Structure to design on (373 residues):
């Protein structure tokens, strides 16, 4: 079964090769999407430090953009106030520069993976708005200035708006109100006036969320605050969202005058207890029935999954003029966060490379989509 799948992959690439007249070794994701959008991946520490050599080989060959999966989050960069730790982030940026990649910083302001000290004073009480502003400014300025001109785009604020369009009741919101978002963008822009700045979120196709994000974008633009794009995370499943719903969101963001970045693409092949949330607190107890494919995907599920990837890439190609980047949230299935979310300990198949580092047949199929566009 596996051999047939691998063979199909090779055949697909060979067909592409014949029709385009390009050497087969040049037919990679990054070459094929070159004049359309960046194609990227998230990187883990073993990849950044070159310990996961097989993944690194894939990243160099296939991807034109990288983002750090974890090491640029505030709990790692500033674990204690004013004590910054940059070793991992430095190594990540050096990897990107060495390989001539479009480097993305993820993420400056997020309620999660944030150090405990950020919102409280020495007595454990909430800090004042002025102190929180100062802490945000210090964090953003220190981090963005360090990588000025090298990190090309920042997820400035992550996951601040809910599906119904209301603001998440995070401490940022409780202490500063809606203004924490424009403030963060201002600080980032002051630290690197050339960097692209994005608002990043999951489920960014829910109509209520789309409307609220667009309102936020327009308000910032009206106030002269730089925002270049929205990041649609795209942790999606086999059934939801529909391509039509997703397309409506892409078109609406494009019309509001920002670029779209597909920032954390993965397509789960597993049954979902409730849809497509990526809210990290929404975990659900393990249940054997919810982990049905431990030894591989049945042919019908595999076919659905491949069709789903092709449907999404068809959509991205259709809107290529509005899309700046498509980034996968990881390289191989074995490393994906989806194996532990929303149910811990499952076997999922959300990415483009399998557990043995083989290129999945769907990659050839995605590449073929570009031939008619
Ligand atoms: O840092 C500890 C380490 O000290 C410990 O040894 C290790 C043992 O498990 O855990 C480490 O923390 C892990 C952390 O990643 C860093 O590796 C956490 O357990 C793990 O839960 C955490 O998961 C990350 C998650 O964000 C946290 O919210 C995932 O790898 C990462 O893929 C995921 O990424 C987020 C995006 O940033 C934002 N959008 C949603 C996306 C998925 O949740």
């Amino acid at each position: 079964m596996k051999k047939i799948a691998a063979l199909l992959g090779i055949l697909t690439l060979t067909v592409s090769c014949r029709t385009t007249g390009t050497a087969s070794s040049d037919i990679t994701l990054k070459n094929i999407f070159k004049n359309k959008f960046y194609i990227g991946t998230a990187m883990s520490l073993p990849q950044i430090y070159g310990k996961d050599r097989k993944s690194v080989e894939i990243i160099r060959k296939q991807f034109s953009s990288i983002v750090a999966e974890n090491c640029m989050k505030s709990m790692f960069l500033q674990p204690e106030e004013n004590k910054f730790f940059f070793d991992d982030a430095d190594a990540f940026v050096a990897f990107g520069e060495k390989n001539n990649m479009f480097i993305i910083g993820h993420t400056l302001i997020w309620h999660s993976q944030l150090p405990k000290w950020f919102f409280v004073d020495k007595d454990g009480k909430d800090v004042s708005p002025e102190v929180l502003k100062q802490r945000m400014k210090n964090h953003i300025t220190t981090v963005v200035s360090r990588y000025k001109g090298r990190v090309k785009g920042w997820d400035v604020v992550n996951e601040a708006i809910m599906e119904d369009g209301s603001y998440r009741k995070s401490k940022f919101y409780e202490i500063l109100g809606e203004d924490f978002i424009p403030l963060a963008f201002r600080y980032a822009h002051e630290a690197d006036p050339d960097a692209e700045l994005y608002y990043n979120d999951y489920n960014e196709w829910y109509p209520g969320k789309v409307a609220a994000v667009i309102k936020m974008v327009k308000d910032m633009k009206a106030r002269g605050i730089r925002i270049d794009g929205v990041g649609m995370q795209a942790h999606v499943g086999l059934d939801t969202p529909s391509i039509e719903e997703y397309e409506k969101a892409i078109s609406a963001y494009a019309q509001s005058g920002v670029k779209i970045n597909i920032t954390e693409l993965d397509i789960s092949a597993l049954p979902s207890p409730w849809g497509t949330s990526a809210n990290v607190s929404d975990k659900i107890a393990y249940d054997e029935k919810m982990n049905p494919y431990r030894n591989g995907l049945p042919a019908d599920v595999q076919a659905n999954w491949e069709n789903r990837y092709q449907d999404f890439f068809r959509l991205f190609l259709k809107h290529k003029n509005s899309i700046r980047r498509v980034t996968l949230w990881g390289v191989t299935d074995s490393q994906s966060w989806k194996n532990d979310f929303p149910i811990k300990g499952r076997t999922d198949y959300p990415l483009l490379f399998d557990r043995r580092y083989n290129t999945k047949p769907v990659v050839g199929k995605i590449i073929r989509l570009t031939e008619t566009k």
Q: What stands out?
A: The radius of gyration is 20 Å. The longest strand covers residues 102-110. The chain has one domain: 36-372. The domain at 36-372 is CATH 3.20.20.80 (TIM Barrel).
